Structure formats: C-alpha cells, structure tokens
Amino acid sequence: MAKQIIQERMLIGGRWMEGKDSISVYDPGTAELIATVPAATTQDVKLAISQAKHGAKLSKNLPVHERMRILHEAAAYIEEQSDLFTRTIVLESSKTIREARKEVKRCIETLRLSAEEARRIQGETLPFSQMPGHESRVGYVYRFPIGIVAAITPFNDPLNLVAHKVGPAIACGNAVIVKPASQTPLSTLRLAEAFEHAGLPAGILSVITGRGADICDPLVEHEDVRFVSFTGGYETGKSISHKAGAKKIAMELGSNSPTIVLKDADIEEAILSTVSGAFGVAGQNCIGVQRIYVESSVYEHFLNRFIFETKKLKVGPKTDESTDVGPMISEKEAKRVEQWIEEARELGATICYGGRRTRAFLEPTVLTEVPQTATIATQEVFGPVVTIETVDSLDEAIELSNNTVYGLHAGIFTANVDQAFHAVHHLDFGGVMVNDSSDVRIDGMPFGGVKRSGVGREGVKYAIDSMTEQKVVAFRLKQSLF
Fold it and tell me: Member of which family (predicted)?
C-alpha cells in the first residue's frame, strides 16, 4: 500500500489556506517524502501583512492576563500532545527521538517564560526637575508593542526557536508572521495549532510556508513590518539587514565556537561535555563545540580519551532510543561537510576518527593539526566535526579562540578562578561558559553574539525588550511641585 502524503496548509490571518504550488518535505534520515506544504507567493505575504495589521491592534489591546492565559494554554496543549510534537520533530528534522523530547520540553518552558515575562513589562519614572525650568513637569516611560514582527527560523530547532520568537511577540502585544525553514515547516504548523487551540485571536499569528527566495524579501522589506527576527547564516543575515531598511533587527548568525581545556581542569568532565557539545544534533548547533584547545601537558590524554568516548556514539535511525547521532538535514549538506574534511586532510590535517559518510549520515569526526587555511578552521561547519589542537598557555588559547570572524559562545575548563576570570574578560564572545563547553543555553538567558555572530539578543525577556518601543510621557502641572 502506498504511503499517504500529508498535504498541509499554511495559516494566514486565522485561515488555513492551500497554495497554487507546493513544497515537498522529506525525512532526512530516509529521504522519504512525508508531506507537502504550500509554496507561498508575494500575494500571500501581502495578505499576511494586511491581516497582521488588524492582528496587531487586537494583540495590543489584549489585557496582560489574557496574553498570559493564551501562552499558558498553548504550553499546556503542547505538553498534552508531546508525543505528536516529538514525532513531528523526529520526522522532519535531524534530531533523534531523545533530542526531540528535550526540544518539546524546552518549547513548553519558553512559552511559560513568555507568559511570566508578560507581567514584567515595566517602565520607570523620570525626574524632570533635574533640569532648571522643568520643576512643574512629572513624567514616566512605558513600553508599547512594536507592531508586526517577522520571524524567519532555521531547521535545527524547528519548534523551540520558533517559540523564542512567537512567545515574546505575543507576550508584549504584537502580531507575528513566521516563515519557517523549508526543510522543517511542520513543527511550526503544529505550534500554530496550539495557539489556535488556546484561543489566540485570528490575525495575531500567521505561518507562511515557502521558499525564502520567493517570500523573504517582500516580508522584510515591507514598511508595515517593524521588527525582523532572523536565525540563520551570515550571508543571508547580511542581505536581510540591507533590505529591511530603517527598522529594528535581531539576528543570530552562527559561530565556530571554541572550548579551552587547561591542565588543572577535571579532564573527564571536560571530555564528556565536549563530546556531547560537538556531536549533538549531528553537529548542527550554532553553539556546538567546533574547536578545542587543550594545554600541552594533558593534550595526548585528552585526545585519546575524547576519541574513545566518540567511538561509543551510535549513529543510526532517529526513532531508535539508543541512537546518539542522527542524519544531517540533507545528503547535500553531508556532502558539503565531507568535502570540507577532505580539504583539511589534503592541507595536512589528520583524521583521528570518523569522516565516513552514508547518504545524509556522517560519522562523528575528530581532526587534529588543521591549518588555518582550511575552510573548516575558519567557517561554521554545522556538522559533526571537531578540531582538537594543543596550546602552551591560556593566553595562546584565548588568542586562537578569538582568531575568528564569529563570537557567539566559548567554553573553558579550569579549577583556577583567576584563570577563569581572565578568560571571561578576554574571550571576545557573547557568552563564556566556565567548566562547561560552549554548548550551554537556558531559555531565560540573553542569547546572541558579537562580530559576525549576530545583532541583538534572544531569550524571552531580552526579545521582549527588542519587540517593544519606549514612550516618554510628560505632564505639565499648573504649579511647581517644589
């Protein structure tokens, strides 16, 4: 019997709509067609924005307690339907079933955080009398919604990274239009269903599925879109920033994150943490460990034990509970990383373990002696590959870590608090994790980087700050208060 292909619809202004054309969605592990989604057009974008203008008025006028209720009920729906959401993530993405369960839990947390932060959107009083001639004025500042938020999301966290844009937008009274990654649109559609179930008024949330080349430009360029939140690659982010014009932007654009291991560190802890940080989600993680710098006296021990632990990882089907590393998002991407590994080898790098590819599955790969001229040394690999190099001092490790155009997260393992603080103050990154790998994030923290790693910060509270504007209010009284 032929497998039934689900024909999904997109959500525009409260209506589930089909499209004239469609995009196929494949399981990256099997290359099987699992669903089709509408290929939105420029006209669909215009309709979504038109509906969002109405939705923004509705959202702005929702009482805070109602925003909170909607967010909490959406979270509760996802919790009740956690198996469905887990299966959806597994089906369309690279995540193993264990990784998918964690993402569903994080999404629930993100929405609940959004509900709680909705009650904490506060202003401040202004002492106008600080300036002579203003003794009869009193005033304050409060925050108001920015209006329409455009959210463009990646494939590697197809549910929680969407929640990180939608949750804060609703919490502070905006409308939001989501353009999910073409490879993984299904989780976003299920999230939209959760908000529909929670009673979110029509028009506040739209999900337009389609090819970025067709619909991103008219979305980000539109004058009525006042904030663009993008997670993805640097070149795309650069293009969006040029086209968006005079509006607020927040972008997380990836990294090639380093972790430093000093001789006084708990080496076993450092090994387990960096193995997990390097190869989780098949390395498709913006804060995943890509470069490790180990102090020379413990380098050989660290390298040997790291390889030993890496060999334990099971590469296999995403639905298998024992699988540690699933496929990359596509065979094309796996071939790209394979080519980067081969380029590094040709330039003199040593492949200590891994490097073999089967369709979209790439073995966890450990490289040493990688020259700085290799692509894999300077760019974000976004695959299950890590480089391990020896250093003679912390300062050398810091210099090598900073020798990048990126700056999202870094990690350092040391038992010396002075060394830790030295690293914190000299590593040029948006986050420094002490006695952890770079791969650490909670949903309530400010998340973002410097240099080519992005602009602004995510994390619920910090996203709300970006998605609101400040308004100054001043009252002139009949007589001075002084």
Answer: Belongs to the aldehyde dehydrogenase family.
